Amino acid sequence: MRRFLLAGISMLLIVSACKKKQQEVTPASTVTATVGGTPMNFSASVSGGKGTTAAVTTIHVLGASNSGLTPTTIAVAISSADANALQLGTYTYSTANLHPTVFPIITYSNPADNGPYATDAYGVQVTTVTITALSSTNVQGTFSGTLTRPTTDATTKTITNGKFNVYFQ
Question: Burial level of 16, CB count in 10 A (0-12/13-18/19+)?
């Protein structure tokens, strides 16, 4: 009887030792957009998150087209003093909406293109960010806008067809 019990325990240990523990795999994060008429993929290096600093809560996404020393980058964010306001929805900054509860921001930088470009501080050029899915680990949405250089010139960069699906680190 003792021999059967020992054999049974040994088999149980062998079987349980052979089971592979499944690792959770986080899907790849992606950021894409058409910049000045050229489709671009900013998924070489992607990060994102949600945080609060000085009573302002921000959901942010950052994507880079390459991981070299001078990558072309795009950043998308929505910020609000009311953390509960950051929900699914469309957020627009324009002259018609200069004081939104949720402020959308897009920036684009290409070292070879005299950047950076950003959401127009005066709202003359419209910026729109739409959040289509949001959880504690992921944010998805779309973005578009005509960005300006924060200098005195009138150079703009049009961003269309922007999409992001980012898993928070």
Answer: exposed
- Rounded Cα distance, 122 and 96, in Å: 11
- Exposed (0-12), middle (13-18) or buried (19+): which is 10, by Cβ within 10 Å? exposed
Q: What are the E-state strand segments in the chain?
A: 30-35, 38-41, 45-53, 56-64, 73-80, 89-93, 103-109, 117-118, 127-134, 138-148, 156-167
* CB of 147 closer than 8 Å to CB of 94: no
DSSP secondary-structure letter at 37? T
Among 139, 45, 53, residue whose Cα is nearest residue 91: 139
What pLDDT score was predicted for residue 77? 93
In three-state secondary structure terms, 55 is: coil
Q: How far is CA 115 from CA 8, 71, 155, in A?
A: 70, 12, 10
CB 17 within 8 A of CB 28: no
Each residue of 38-82: pLDDT tens digit?
999 999 899 998 888 888 989 999 999 976 677 899 999 999 988
What share of residues in the chain are helix, strand, coil (percent, to 5)?
15, 50, 35
